[in-house]
Predict the 3D structure of the following.
Amino acid sequence: MFSRFPPVAIPIRQVSHPHTALRTAARLKGNPLRFSRIQEPLRTVRSTPAKRHFHSTSAAMTDPSKTKSESEWRAILSPEQFRILREKGTERAGTGKYDKFYEEGVYTCAGCGTPLYKSTTKFNSGCGWPAFFDAIPGAVQRHEDRSFGMTRIEITCAACGGHLGHVFKGEGFPTPTDERHCVNSVSLNFVEDKDKKN
Ligand SMILES: [Zn+2]
């Protein structure tokens, strides 16, 4: 069993981790692994049925007051935020500003500002993206994602439908849920909990 918290997450890469799959997809296209080079091929790969599936499920359950048209989102989001939140992109491993960030507070949706995760549920998974073992109740929706030839659980902001990342279960982390919400830093904004400071 684990003697320390958090554990070193060596086994994660050995199962069909999403980002391993991304690199595989890029490699098949004959591209180097540099993230800037693999954006276009990935967009091509993820264009068809999975994308329709995403949109049909997430759009039906969002809060109309928090949703916007594509052009409205483009106007308020940075290009990187738009690529990840609205086009279901992924930031490069280990580059996100909240990957190794452990201040006390709340993480809100970078698209609509809805509180999504508390810092008390954040843990170090070692995988290169912010990891949480649970979301604020009702804040996050789950959708089956069959892109890249595997079945994963995509998570989106329940209010605006923005893409957050994926949830992985049963990996053996010693957390209360044994779930890992693998979330892009770009999809989040941290709000410090000032009440807990002196
Ligand atoms: Zn949102």
